[in-house]
Design goal:
By secondary structure, the chain is an all-alpha fold. Helix content is about 70%, strand content about 0%. The longest helix is centred in the C-terminal third of the chain and has 15 residues, at about 40-55.
């Protein structure tokens, strides 16, 4: 989790990379909204409940 959070700030478009990784490994369809790109950690926190419900994260 810490590595993923760091990646969201290290690279330009980091949150898109995180969504791609989760989509690729879990087979889900996460869409990132513009405000989530601007504030990636806050956006990740708001995505967590949906990820748990869809089974992307256990």
């Amino acid at each position: 989790m810490v590595r993923l959070a760091k990646a969201s700030f290290t690279y330009a478009g980091g949150i898109d990379y995180l969504a791609w990784k989760i989509n690729r490994h879990a087979g889900t369809a996460i869409t990132i909204k513009p405000w989530q790109r601007r504030w990636p950690l806050l956006g990740a926190v708001t995505l967590l409940p949906a990820l748990f419900r869809s089974g992307a994260i256990r």
